[in-house]
Specification:
The chain is mainly α and 362 residues long. The chain has a domain of 123 residues: Serine Threonine Protein Phosphatase 5, Tetratricopeptide repeat. 86% of the residues lie in helices and 0% in strands.
């Protein structure tokens, strides 16, 4: 039958349109041109395998869009398809497609982690790191990709329960970003914030609370610097780092010091929700829940009730749109609220909250 005239150009235009919409934050709108690009490339590839790389890139693009609108399960298939195509292409031309395969393996790891397939996510992360290590050994321009892949591997190891190796890998990622930042500090503030933040979380998991607090504060400093250069993109991460500091302080039984960062985190997320509710409501709910826990730890249970109730209400709202993602958060938030109400002697309300917690996971 042959390739329809103009079909490759049409597919490319569709992929470019999806990329532009994604760049504007319009991820849901980007799905249609991304899917149409895939359908067009599939027809083209049936007649001309030379376009397999374009099809793989289109699958990769779709897999980056779906998680942005909380459709994590659906993202697994396209990124798996991308990986399979890059594997085929890398056999024929390793030097041309090894970097593409490494990038899709990295995305596969992140996607599988989001749906709780931790063992598979770890395997994909290890493969991505190995590929980037080989690439970076030949071409230092791949060093930022290797640092990022190491950061993701550390998280995958932590999720799989291997916190000791996670710390070693996270330290490698931080060291690489520190080296990269020597020549261009501003360009790597955010990356350092992310890598240092994750290192702090791994240290916390092995009970190194003092060091974890120090590292969390350093991460927050990097996120603050990143926010100064790009507030819209990085302010949510700075707010999240304040919650992280509060959590680290609580691990050291320093709840009195934790109130300030926990309260500041809520305040920043409240501002962010006003401008972008879809992106920031989950973060505000978490920050409110953490503030309530901090206040309760100080015996200020009456004060804890208001943020705890707001957190529960937000999680209920989020669960209406995405039940599988937020059902357990609803149960957790209502369980906490029930405890705070009970501690204040408001037993009838506590019983109602406990019922709501049980109902959420039925």
């Amino acid at each position: 039958m042959g390739i329809r005239r103009g079909a490759p150009e049409e597919a490319l235009d569709l992929a470019n349109t999806a990329n532009r919409l994604a760049g504007l934050g319009r991820h849901e709108e980007a799905l249609d041109p991304a899917n149409r690009a895939i359908r067009t490339y599939k027809k083209i590839v049936a007649d001309d395998p030379a376009y397999r790389a374009d099809l793989a890139a289109a699958y990769h693009l779709l897999a980056t869009l779906l998680p942005e609108i909380e459709r994590h399960e659906e993202a697994v298939e396209p990124v798996e398809r991308a990986v399979r195509l890059w594997e085929q292409l890398a056999k024929d031309s390793p030097t041309s497609h090894e970097a593409d395969l490494a990038a899709s393996l990295d995305l596969l790891s992140l996607t599988l982690a989001k749906v709780g397939r931790n063992g598979e996510a770890l395997a994909a992360a290890r493969r991505s790191v190995r590929s980037y290590e080989e690439l970076a050994a030949e071409d230092p321009t791949y060093a930022p990709d290797l640092a990022s892949a190491l950061n993701h591997l550390g998280n995958a190891l932590g999720a799989d329960g291997d916190h000791e190796e996670a710390i070693e890998v996270a330290q490698r990622s931080v060291a690489m970003y520190e080296s990269l930042a020597v020549a261009n500090p501003v360009a790597y503030h955010f990356n350092l914030g992310s890598a240092v933040n994750n290192l702090g979380n791994h240290l916390s998991e092995v009970g190194e609370y003092e060091e974890a607090l120090e590292v969390a504060r350093r991460a927050s400093d990097f996120f603050r610097l990143a926010t100064e250069s790009n507030p819209e993109a990085h302010r949510p991460y700075y707010a999240g780092s304040l919650t992280n500091i509060a959590n680290r302080l609580c691990e050291l039984d320093r709840e009195d010091e934790a109130v300030d960062p926990a309260t500041r985190s809520v305040a920043v997320f409240e501002e962010l929700v006003a401008s972008d509710p879809v992106e920031n409501k989950p973060h505000l709910a978490m920050a409110l829940n953490n503030l309530a826990i901090v206040l309760s730890g100080l015996g200020r249970n009456e004060e804890a009730i208001e943020p705890a109730r707001r957190a529960a209400d937000l999680y209920v709202e989020l669960a209406k749109a995405n039940p599988s993602t937020y059902r357990e958060d609803v149960a957790m938030a209502y369980s906490n609220l029930a405890v705070f109400l009970s501690d204040c002697g408001r037993n009838e309300e506590a019983g109602e909250a406990a019922q709501m917690a049980a109902k959420a996971v039925e």
